[in-house]
Batch of 3 targets.
Target 1
Amino acid sequence: MKHLTLLPLLLACVTAPALAGSCKAIHADLTEVSSAEGCNPGLASCFLGEVDGNHGLRGTTHFAADSGRAGPPTSPSFISYSGPFEYRTQSGTLTMRETGVTTNNSEGVVTAYQEIVQGTGLYAGASGYLFVSGHKSGGMITTFVKGEICYP
């Protein structure tokens, strides 16, 4: 009788790793350049890039800020921004909302938080977040991406 009482607990323990296993730690390298060509319809400019990461996060990217503000008076060389960010891979598209800060000139740093808002293919129904951090120089933005994607 004691063994039957433990059965639900054992089943819960056996299924828990499967649920936890649906989340994958992500790390990737991302390089972007500003462009006036190849942007999504209706956009005059955007940032196009290439991502090379683990768990299938390899492909191209697209970003265009839809809002921005000057930084605080104590950090006048920074601006904050937000916009949709797309990772386009062979397995599907991952659409994020990126919110970040960067220096307001062509040389400097950038750091951002990306939250999954939608996905297609492998990423349909996924949730999670990514942190992006790096520098910009000579018209190129080079960052490191780290976070977690949870699959349904």
Target 2
Amino acid sequence: MDEVQAGSSPDADESRDPEPERGGLRRFLRRMASSKAELEAEDLQKTSDEEGATPITACSERKRHCVAGTLRTVTLRPRGGAPALEAELYDGTDVINLVWLGRRRIAGIDPGRRLRAEGLVSVQDGRKVMFNPRYELRGNS
């Protein structure tokens, strides 16, 4: 027969803390109940925060901001008769259009690519836009 010290139960394990288990279970249940889009948005927000980027929802008009996220779409849309490459960047909170004037194509600017961009934010037709932003390509999503 095993000896048990007074004041402790035989099932108690001193080295295990029940709090991390409950947190892990809570996280698991939340992930199971969430949709794929919600989980992807949460992951994007987390990586954007780690890169020191401003959430797109917090970007105000006529101010310089640094944003990071994944390119959803990349299209060629002429503006005023000149070529313009337009990309939609999503960071899990909102979308911003990145527009490079006078460009038909930029190597590495493709849908699904992670990107960090910095520039002046403006609003056109109710959408946030950044013209000719400085950018850094990141790994694929």
Target 3
Amino acid sequence: MKKSFALLIVLACGASVVQAKLPPPTPEAKAAADAAKDKTAWSDKVAAYKLCQAQDKIAEQYLKSKEGAKKPTVETPPCADPGPYVPTTAATPAAAPGPAAGGTTAAAAAPSGTPASPQASVAPANAPANANAPANTNATPAAPAKK
């Protein structure tokens, strides 16, 4: 009795930890879940189609084996083939095309109101994101030189 009561208390405490709220899924995760749901629905349709075919085949064999068997009076719908899998969600956008063979310039490719010069909009690779911040804040200080 005491052991089961103690176990019940431990499980009750653990249940509160398990009920933590998860963050909302990202758009990519939602798209992947929708794609998986579509694929599962299609797989279910294929399974139903194969089952229908198997049932029709067995019913046909049964009617052939029984000479005096009556034909069924209820008409069943024909099996519907779901066809090949076609994703219903929009395909991922194609990668942005590179410069054409004619050689478009940055000024021609840039939308109006944006700087055409790459130096004006992109910081150098070795410059820190914030000019006032040190370049590497996680670096350990250099060891003092020995005399």
